[in-house]
Amino acid sequence: MKLDVNDEVAECLGLDEKELLEVLAIALYKLEKINGVQGGKITGTSEIEFHGILGKYGQFINYDEGELETDLKNL
Questions:
Q1: How high does pLDDT run on average in the chain?
Q2: Less packed terminus of the chain by CB within 10 Å, N or C?
Q3: Which Pfam families does this one have (predicted)?
Q4: Sign of dihedral through CA atoms 49, 51, 57, 58?
């Protein structure tokens, strides 16, 4: 899939292509439509790097109690 953003709109947003992809990925992640791995694919980074991008924009990793319990069992 290819997304086409009108140059005028992009200029008004003050975002370059990389930043726009980051914002898109963060929005989808916060809506729980994608996970960190998919966010990394959208932004061209690893999952860990995508988590860094979340922090850059003041966002937090989606991590619930069930995931914590699973991680603790796997330790």
A1: 91
A2: N
A3: UPF0175 (PF03683)
A4: negative
